[in-house]
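Course assignment 3, question 2. Fill in each field.
Student: A.L.
Task: Predict the tertiary structure for the chain below.
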Amino acid sequence: MKTMSLKDFQSALERAGKFKGEAGVLAQKKLLLDSVMLVDENGMAVDPETIDITIKPAAGAPEIEEDMAKEEPMNEEKIASAVKSALADIVQTKAVNVTAPAVSAPRVYGRLKSFSNDAKGAEKAYRFGRWFAAAAGHRKSIDWCKDNGVELIRTKAHLEGSNSAGGFLVPEEMDSELVVLREQYGVFRREARVIPMSSDVRNVNRRQTGLTAYWIGEGSAITKSQGSFDQAKLVAKKLGVLTEISSELNEDSLVNLGDDAADEVAQAFAYAEDDAGFNGDGTSTYGGIVGLANQLTDATYQIADMGSVTAYSGVGLAELVAAFRKLPAWASQRNNVKIYCNKQVWHSVFERLAAAGGGNTMQTLANGLTAPQFLGYPVVYSQIIPVSETGGATFAYIGDLQLAAYFGDRRQTAIDFSNSGGDAWENDLIAVRATERIDINIANVGSSSAYGAMVKLTL
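Answer field:
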């Protein structure tokens, strides 16, 4: 369907009103609304029922009424012709007062952090803000969600095993934005192999040995071989974040409310996911997850010790090449090997050695700040990896994290609200609890007798 702006619509009605009065305006409005869709300045559809039209004859302008009396009644063909003329030559007149409620874009205060800084990003943030406020009990936002197809689904109404977290499931359209943000802020969710989990437990098949090909003598039977598999288990674990917001939900700031809520929840989840993936020790502090630091324990096949070096300044190219040598060929076939380290380690170790290697230009050094690489391998910053120059301290990992780790994602995010408990009631605050269910299994990192997809670098 063709669209028409409110401004053009108003001009067309003004022209019809000038020549045909109230009857002309009503006929004009009906004809237009049957063939076009009204949109505001942002391209959003406008409900025609919200448009108020008032006809006020201009004082001291009887010539208009005389002209109207002489004119023959307008049929649809004449009205269509008048519309076309009105769009080409907008006529301003005091004889008609056509008013329509202003339809403004969602108000944004400052730059958005989690959504793009354009009309589309503001609209996404506004929808999330409206849903967020509705889930918190804001009556106008509840009505808005009903009218705009945004569902408020309680998790307790959709029980499955032990997957109930209370509160409301974030709608898919908005949860996908949170997933993108978690991937943006976090390393593990972005770099590991993400496995969707339709139940609390999922087993992932993992090949141990493949088939064997044999040379066949003339007239001889083919020797049979059998590949072997085992399974890596993912068990969904609940991860939550708790904060407080003001109970005075201002409709003018819903865009920023949605933007801030998405940003805070995504960053909190991303930090916890990375902490468990890299540093988890199997305790409740990390949801029972054992991360890379504690899975890579074999000094021969999984750890590259820098020898007698006890500080970053002493790490040389020879020690790093020895670390890369521990990666098997199959771990490099997909060209996805990367270096994972704290940004401080990048500057202290890898950038230092790259700059000392010679052949650099200002351009290559500048590129290293935006897309750091070492020996052709991309470098990924993770500030969760500790920075310590003590003996035995881990300072980096190299390998293909997508081959080494499975990231189980159980369900979409759930958010719940409460005004009781702690100091929420006394300070007129609303407590906000967001939860997700995930698991991380470091499954393909080698053993005490075989190399794997990751190597840990230690002093």
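Instructor remarks: Residues 6-35 form the longest helix (30 residues). The two ends are 67 Å apart (CA to CA).
Grade: pending
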